[in-house]
Amino acid sequence: MKSAKISEAVVRRLPIYLQVLNELHIREIQTVSSQELGVKLDLNPAQIRKDLAYFGEFGRKGIGYDVLYLIEKIRQILKLNQTIKVALVGAGNLGRALCNYNKYSKDNMQITAVFDVHPEKIGTDINNLVVQPMSELEKVVAEQKIRIGIITVPAHEAQNVANQFITVGVEGILNFAPAILRVPDEVRIHNADFTRELLSLAYYLNHEGDVSDDSAVD
Amino acid sequence: MKSAKISEAVVRRLPIYLQVLNELHIREIQTVSSQELGVKLDLNPAQIRKDLAYFGEFGRKGIGYDVLYLIEKIRQILKLNQTIKVALVGAGNLGRALCNYNKYSKDNMQITAVFDVHPEKIGTDINNLVVQPMSELEKVVAEQKIRIGIITVPAHEAQNVANQFITVGVEGILNFAPAILRVPDEVRIHNADFTRELLSLAYYLNHEGDVSDDSAVD
């Protein structure tokens, strides 16, 4: 069975829809209109209807979308109706935070193995996962059928870790290091480097600050 | 002085250009072509020339861009040629990781104050910053002229923290909590919720996995 190709922009909005829908579900709200979703997400209702229409006819005129049905449908599209195992390399504060988040997550993505390159971290414990040396990566990824790798090492170590993930056959990488990584076409890489969001945020601050030279175009 | 309005997509690419240019500078590379940047960033060279042309004529035919000049120019556009003070609320593992990163950052964005709502965290130390109670937020933001707030609290506490940031006058918010936050138009909010990147990554995994039902469009 072949899926229609969904644009990257839509795929990236789906987790946001899912987040809002989960919140509605917790509040026991059973239906939602594209107008209501639009207000919550600061998106045009027409855009929302268009995005969701990719996956068939969900909405009903005058009633809106069934929240639970839409949750299930989006989870299915994002392939979250399966357990996806994840390995994390870099057992620092960020790695610890991610493992901790993961423990409470209802998503079917589970960090099931943690690795580090630094001997002093090997054998320590993060949320009941023992930090393992990189020499175990290949064996563990194969045994546990791990499909995604998370990189939470410093920037200068990140490409090396990515290379090892690629060698052992992970299909997707989530990179938190502030570095541009090169991966082959068949591996999908997403960046979660917060410094980008932080730096682009600065652009939108008011011009009142003590800017030494304005950003005018000549 | 008025700046030409730069599109959001370009503003979001500027930190990525900056990252690559900084890497080139460290490697003592003095000029770079749009072709070379394109390969590094997996972007069309024509797109790169167009993006950079927003800010005047940088490049020289046959020579390319002067790396250091472009770094300075982008820093100026992103207003990184000033010190921007940042407050963080949520002294957990993620907050700790961000403060630690910040300590080594060469960016002029500095986390200068950390807050938490939980009494047991107040008074503890993160990278030489003492965790303060939320009751001090208004005073500290005013005294230190803090302009950006980072939210690293659980999802159900995030809107409340955002409201407090807004009340005390921060201009921008970087939200790490997996929650959709509502802010007034004059406050800029960026999301750094990694779960979105992780969930959208699942979509791109190969179809070989044990998917119980395919994501086909009817």
Automatic annotation (TrEMBL), chains A, B:
The keyword Transmembrane does not apply. Pfam families: CoA_binding, Put_DNA-bind_N. Transmembrane segments: none annotated. Residues 79-180 form the CoA-binding domain. It comes from the Bacteria. Residues 16-55 bind DNA. It is found in: Cytoplasm. InterPro entries: CoA-bd, NAD(P)-bd_dom_sf, Rex_actinobacterial-type, Rex_DNA-bd_C_dom, Tscrpt_rep_Rex, WH-like_DNA-bd_sf, WH_DNA-bd_sf. SUPFAM superfamilies: NAD(P)-binding Rossmann-fold domains, Winged helix' DNA-binding domain. One of its GO terms (biological process) is negative regulation of DNA-templated transcription. Keywords: Cytoplasm, DNA-binding, NAD, Repressor, Transcription, Transcription regulation. One of its GO terms (molecular function) is DNA-binding transcription factor activity. NAD(+) binds at residues 90-95. One of its GO terms (cellular component) is cytoplasm. HAMAP family: Rex. Homodimer. Modulates transcription in response to changes in cellular NADH/NAD(+) redox state. NCBIfam families: PRK05472.1-3, PRK05472.2-1, PRK05472.2-2, PRK05472.2-3, PRK05472.2-4, PRK05472.2-5. Belongs to the transcriptional regulatory Rex family. This is Redox-sensing transcriptional repressor Rex. It comes from Paenibacillus paeoniae. The lineage of its organism: Bacteria, Bacillati, Bacillota, Bacilli, Bacillales.
